[in-house]
């Protein structure tokens, strides 16, 4: 049972709390740390949206009296999305963070599909770091500093610094403690004015994280922006003046800032153009903040959210058409429709003709129920998407065989799993999810992917082969196990048999432990 757990700070990421616990306990093995915290070794820590909260609180809840909802609300970035994502989806993501064994919340919340560029490394404020070490003797990761668009600390108004730790590290199961960062006395933080646009942006992001704001639908945002651009005279007739809007946004933020955050306005059909038309999808907080700060500088963003949320949105009623002669003429139009359908294969082709468009329009208005049951096939836009799976199977199989032949003798490579083979032939789609269409690749993976036993044997043999090739004595069996990163608990039976061999028979290859350590040093 866990007997102590760190005290959580305001705005601290959950993964930062866990990292401080791991560091205090001296848990150098990532899997042991995961099993201690969650009761499972197969969990992958997430920097921004850490899941498996129910499992975590079952181990630390007796020390950390907090509800599952408060863990998400206080120590994750989910509150930044609640205004811009449907409430039902937010509830679903919250449920997954608490209960789900496999979480895909970054995809569900729209982060992976968004054009917004998120930071790659954990970021910190130099002055906050120094204050933490002076007051607490340690530091922690703040969730605000990891959000896109935040470059300035809203408390000290100095630029943030990138740490050496990535948000998505290669060691997927590791925890990175911010306390390992040491304040540098020679480094002078760069300060800016509190009225600078970057300072204001950071303050707005901080307010969104810590304020329970309402959800605003795309139609409400559309109506709100239409009203605002009318007030500041950014209209051409009854339409938004997109050219002027684009010029104001570029002038305020600059090309470098927009490119840096995935907000480029170079393309004709860019995000800004769609934002001020009728919105058909959700945009994230940074999209809206960039627009409101550039176009409506006197508007508080929280005030904008409140006003937009109060705008009533009514679903347009479907128009009902009436014709006193419809029942009499329906028979003739049905006959004409069947004749037109016999000439063309798709609805698109039919509506491209004058007669087809006329008959379709009449039936759609006055005999829609019958029309829906007699529509031809819809046109499919699969041009360029058809895949010759047999040809692709042969090409991929050749690449896999070539890769296996070139790497067969390299004992230093990681475990040759199916994922490893796919990653090293530089094919990033259409293999794992379509193996039923790739019989040659499937047979290759069955035959050549390494099991854990085979991988452990290769790690041990790599050490022995290296010693033989360099004409050096073979180390003691227990040292081979240590160098290979194995232990008595993790070593499989085939490895134990190899390590149990009597190396005394090979007297010319024998090396004492002290001599081996001396040569290694």
Note the beta-strand portion.
Answer: under 5%
Overall mean pLDDT stands at: 87
Count of distinct strands: 4
Task: Give the strand line-up of the largest sheet.
Answer: 1-2
Number of helical runs?
25
Helix content, binned percent: 40-55%
Tell me the series of helices and strands, N- to C-terminal. Answer: HHHHHHEHEHHEEHHHHHHHHHHHHHHHH
Q: What is the distance, rounded to the nearest whole angstrom, between the alpha carbons of the first and last residues?
A: 40 Å
Main beta-sheet strand count, sense and barrel state: 2 strands, antiparallel
Please tell me what the overall shape is. Answer: globular
Oligomer designation: single chain
The parts where pLDDT drops under 50 for at least 5 residues are 511-516
What Rg, in angstroms, do the CA atoms define?
31 Å
| Helix/strand structural class | mainly alpha
């Amino acid at each position: 049972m866990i007997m102590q757990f760190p005290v959580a700070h305001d705005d601290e990421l959950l993964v930062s709390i866990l990292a401080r616990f791991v560091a205090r306990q001296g848990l150098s093995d990532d899997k042991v740390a995961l099993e201690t915290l969650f009761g499972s070794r197969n969990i992958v820590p997430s920097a921004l949206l850490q899941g498996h909260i129910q499992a975590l609180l079952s181990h630390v809840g007796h020390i950390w009296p907090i509800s599952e909802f408060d863990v998400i609300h206080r120590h994750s970035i989910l509150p930044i999305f609640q205004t811009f994502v449907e409430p039902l989806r937010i509830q679903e993501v919250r449920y997954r963070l608490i209960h789900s064994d496999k979480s895909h919340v970054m995809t569900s919340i729209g982060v992976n599909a968004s054009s917004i560029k998120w930071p790659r490394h954990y970021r910190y404020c130099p002055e906050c770091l120094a204050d933490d070490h002076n007051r607490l003797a340690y530091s922690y990761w703040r969730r605000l500093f990891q959000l896109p668009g935040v470059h300035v600390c809203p408390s000290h108004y100095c630029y943030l610094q990138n740490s050496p730790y990535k948000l998505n590290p290669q060691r997927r199961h590791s925890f990175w403690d911010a306390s390992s960062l040491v304040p540098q006395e020679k480094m002078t933080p760069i300060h800016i004015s509190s009225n600078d646009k970057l300072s204001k942006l950071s303050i707005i992001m901080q307010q969104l994280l810590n304020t329970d704001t309402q959800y605003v639908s795309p139609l409400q945002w559309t109506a709100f922006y239409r009203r605002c651009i009318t007030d500041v005279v950014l209209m051409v007739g009854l339409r938004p003046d997109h050219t002027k809007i684009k010029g104001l946004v570029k002038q305020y933020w600059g090309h470098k800032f927009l490119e840096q955050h995935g907000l480029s306005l170079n393309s004709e059909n860019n995000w800004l153009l769609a934002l001020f038309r009728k919105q058909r999808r959700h945009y994230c907080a940074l999209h809206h903040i960039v627009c409101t700060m550039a176009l409506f500088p006197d508007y508080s963003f929280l005030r904008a959210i409140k006003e937009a949320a109060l705008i009533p949105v009514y679903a347009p009623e479907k128009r009902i058409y009436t014709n006193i002669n419809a029942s009499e003429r329906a028979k003739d139009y049905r006959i004409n429709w069947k004749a037109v359908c016999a000439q063309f294969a798709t609805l698109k082709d039919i509506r491209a003709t004058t007669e087809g468009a006329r008959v379709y329009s009449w039936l759609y208005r006055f005999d829609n129920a019958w029309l829906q049951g007699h529509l031809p096939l819809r046109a499919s836009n699969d041009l360029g998407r058809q895949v010759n799976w047999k040809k692709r199977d042969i090409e991929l199989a050749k690449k896999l065989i070539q890769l296996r032949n070139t790497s067969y003798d390299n004992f230093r490579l990681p475990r040759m799993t199916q994922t490893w083979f796919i990653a090293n032939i530089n094919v990033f789609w259409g293999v794992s999810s379509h193996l039923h269409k790739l019989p040659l690749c499937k047979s290759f993976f069955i035959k050549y992917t390494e099991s854990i036993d085979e991988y452990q044997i290769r790690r041990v043999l790599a050490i022995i082969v290296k010693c033989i090739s360099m004409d050096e004595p073979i180390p003691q069996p227990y040292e081979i196990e240590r160098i290979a990163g194995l232990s008595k608990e993790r070593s499989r039976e085939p490895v134990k048999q190899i390590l149990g061999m009597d190396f005394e028979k090979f007297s010319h290859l024998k090396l004492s432990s002290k001599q081996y350590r001396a040569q290694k040093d």
